[in-house]
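Why Switch-associated protein 70? Reviewers of the renewal asked for a concrete example.
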Amino acid sequence: VLSHNLCTVLNVPHDPVALEEHFRDDDEGPVSNQGYMPYLNKFILEKVQGNFDKVEFNRMCWTLCAKKNLSKSPLLINDEDAFKVWVIFNFLSEDKYPLIIVPEEIEYLLKKLTEAMGAGWQQEQFDHYKIALNTSREGLSAWELIDLIGSGQFSKGMDRQTVSMAINEVFNELILDVLKQGYMLKKGHKRKNWTERWFVLKPNIISYYVSEDLKDKKGDIILDGNCCVEALPDKDGKKCLFLIKCLDKSFEISASDKKKKQEWIQAIQTTVSLLRAGRPPPHKEARQKRKELRQKLLAEQEELERQMKELQTANENKQKELETVRKQLEAAAARAAEEEKKRLQTQVELQDRFSLELEREKMVRQKMEEQVAQKSSELEQYLQRVRELEEMYKQLQEALEDEKQARQDEETVRKLQARLLEEESAKRAELEKWHLQQQQTIQMTEAEKQELENQRMIKEQALQVAMQQLAQLELERKEALEQYEEVKKKLETAANNTKSWKDKVAHHEGLIRLIEPGSKNPHLITNWGPAAFTEAELEQRQKSWKGKKNASE
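Here is what the prediction returned.
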C-alpha cells in the first residue's frame, strides 16, 4: 500500500498486481526498514521525473508521521497550520539526519511570522530563548517547532485567525514560491471586458483564478527573460493600469490603487530580472546564503577548535619538555654544587699559597718603588732645568721679534711722514694758486657789479618816466570817460525827447513825416548812433594822443 501510494503521488508508472506479488506474505516475516530502503531507492525514487505535486507528496508524508509524533496538548493552531509549519521545517532544516532546525533559521521563521501578523519583533525575548536552547542542544525537531509556534510564546496578543493567516502567507512564499498575490482587474483578449481575478505571482509564471480559493483557474502568464512590464495612462474609465508584454501576448491589468500598481510592477520586474540572471527566488537564495554562512562559520569554528587542540597538544609537549629541562637543571645544579665545593677548597689552598707569594712581592715592590721615586725626583729636577732653558730661549726669540718689528714700524712711520710732507707742500701751492684766482675773480665781479648798478639806475629812471606817463594817460583816460559819460547822458536825453516828440506827431498826424535839415558835414556813425564830434575833431584828438605817447617813450 505504501509503495502504491508513493508511485501514485510521485507519478511513477507501476503495476499494482506486480506490487502485490512482490510484497506477498511469506515465511520470511515482515519487511524491515533496512530491507525496504533499497527497493524504495531503486524502483521508486530513481524513477521520479520531478513533475509531481509536492504539496500532495508532503501531505502523504504528514499523514504517515503526524498522528504518531504530533503533541496531544492543545495548541493555538489547527492541524492544517501544523502541516504547513511541518513543511516549512523540512524546507529550512539542515541536510543531515535526524533533521533539526538551527536557532538562526528559527529566528528567520519567527521574524517572517511576526512581520506577517503585523506585530513588532522582540529580539531580547528571542535572545533569552536562544541562550536557553544552546545550552541544551543544537536545534529543534519538527514537532518541537510546531509546539513552539502553537504555544503562542512569540505571538502573544494575536488570535488564532491572525496566526493562521500569517502561517499561510509564509507557507505560500517559502513553499509554493508565491512572490505576490491579490485581486486585480484583467482585460479580456476577445470580449475586451474587464473582469476581477485573483493573481498569483511565482518565479516563472503568473496564474489568475476566479477567487482566492484557487479552485477555478482561468489562465497563466508565462514569464521569461524577454518579458517586460510598463505603466499605462488611465483610459476607458480604468485607473492604475499597467501592461505585461510577453513574446506571444500582452496583458492589460488594472490595480486597485497606485501603491498596489507600483508593488506589482516592482515584483514582476524583479522576477524577470532573476530569470534573466538565472538566479533562484529570493527566499531560496537567502536560505542558501544563510546555509553557506553557517557552514563557513562552522568550518572556522572547527578550524579554531583544531588549532586550539594543536595548541593544547603543543602546550602539553612544552610542559613535558620543561619538566625534563627542570630535572636536568636540578641534576646540573647538584653537580655544580659539588664542583663549587671542590673549587672553594682548591681556592682556599691557592689563596694561602698566593698570600705568601704576595707578601714577598710586596717587599720587592716597595724597594722598587723607593728606587723609582728617587729616579723620578732626579728626572723632575732635570726636566725643570730643561723647561727653564726653553722658557729663556722663547723670551729671547720674542725680544728679537719685538725689536725687528719696532724697526719695521719706525721705517714705515718715517716714510709716511715724508709722504705727508710732500702732500702738504703740494696742497699749500695749490691753495695759493686758488687764492690768486679768487682775488682776480672778485675784482672782475666788482667791475661787472658797478656796470650792472649803472644800468639798473638808468632803467629805474626810465621806469619812473614811464610811470609818470602812465599816470598822465590814466588821468586823460578818466577825463575821456567822464566826457563820454556826459555825452552819453546828453544823447540818451535827446533820444528820449525825440522819441516822445515823434510818438506825439505820429499819434496826431498819422503818417506825416517831418523833414529835418541835415548836417553839412558827414556824421560819424557809432554803435550808439551818430557821433557827438566830427571826423576832423577825431583826427586832431588822435594826433594829440600820439604826441603824448611818443613823449612818454
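The two ends are 169 Å apart (CA to CA). This is the kind of structural detail the renewal will allow us to pursue systematically.
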